[in-house]
Amino acid sequence: MRRALWLAVCVTVGAGAASGEGLDWEVEESAGTPAVQAARNVRDGVLGLGDAFFDANTAVFGCFALAASQLFMGAGDLVGLVDDNPVTQHVTKGVVSKNLAKVAYLWHLAGAESLLGSHGLEVERWATGDVATLNPLLSDEDVAKLEGPLPRGPLAFVGESMFHADAYQPAAPFADLGAALLADGIMRPAASVLRIVQLPERADAIDETATDWFGRTLEWGW
């Protein structure tokens, strides 16, 4: 009973802490007259077009970075066959393959942070992190499920192994790029147009669907 109560308290406190810290681009607006609301819809539609454009750029960079990471990791594993096999590792100590793996990890971090920091996913991610940190009853597996598959830990790149399988998912950058182009090139601009012509409910539904598809693609890809 006490453990269940402690779990409820931790989840409540974590969610409250996450929701209590606002972001610098969040603006609270009071309810206005129909004319004011109509003007806000036009404003939000125009701003939404810009937001979709910038999110698309961030996502494209993230996809490029993930692809670069896997190329460097592939080069590191290939070189590792020469400088980090059971015979030569006592001479060369895997210097070249080790440093290629480090570069791969840095590119991976850049790509993961770019993708997870777009489309509003950062808010959900930070809230989940607070809950996971404050809840001592969650196992490592439960925390991993909450936090998602990205970014990979450093041992996926530099752990003792001839082939670092966890660092690879060749299809992921292409899937993420396709999801970004669909969400930011078609769906979200369409939602912004609907918002401008005073159909905010339909616009909200399309925006939510686009973001949900993008987030699910990131999880599926890894």
Give a verbal description of the structure.
- By secondary structure, this protein is mainly alpha-helical.
- It has one domain (39-221).
- Helix content is 76%, strand content 0%.
- The protein is elongated, with a radius of gyration of 22 Å.
- The two termini are 37 Å apart.
- The relative contact order is 0.15.
- The model is unreliable at 1-20 (pLDDT under 50).
What are the key terms here?
mainly alpha, single chain, about 0% strand, 9 helices, about 220 residues, disordered N terminus
Overall domain count = 1
Which structural class fits the helix and strand makeup?
mainly alpha
Distance between termini?
A: 37 Å
Inertia-based shape:
elongated
Reported for the largest beta sheet, the result is: none
* Share of residues in helices: over 70%
Give the number of helices: 9
β-sheet strand percentage: under 5%
DSSP strand tally? 0
Give me the strand/helix succession.
Answer: HHHHHHHHH
* Unreliable residue stretches: 1-20
Mean pLDDT rating: 84
Radius of gyration: 22 Å
Assembly type of the shown chains? Answer: single chain
Topology:
Blueprint: H1 2-20, H2 34-83, H3 89-92, H4 95-116, H5 121-134, H6 140-147, H7 155-158, H8 172-196, H9 200-221
Helix pairs in contact: 1-5, 2-4, 2-8, 8-9
How would you summarize what this structure contains?
This protein has 222 residues and is an all-alpha fold. 76% of the residues lie in helices and 0% in strands.
